[in-house]
Amino acid sequence: MGRPYLGEFEELVLLTVAVLDGSAYGVTIAAELKQRTDRVISLSGVHIALYRLEEKGFVSSELGGATAARGGRRKRLFGITAAGKQTLSEMRQVRNGLWESIPNPSWS
Question: I want to staple 59 with a disulfide (CB 3.0 to 4.6 A). Which of 51, 53, 85, 96 is the partner?
């Protein structure tokens, strides 16, 4: 059996969790993705992707401390796991291999 399927949006969310390195939660991930991709990012879409990634073992989560700014609610912080790092590495190798295999890429 091969590697679990990772869709484009899940890959972007996983990469963003890695970029945010310990401060990744729904709102920060959505903001970072919007800034970097110039796409409309749904917070609920980010949460769905995060829960799928957690089910696949690519991210883990824990509850942060409660803050007055959030009305006493706690944030669920996400971090990338070793399996998530390995999957991103494998995906990068596949993508790089494909890019390098394009004959005469005059448009790149």
Answer: 53
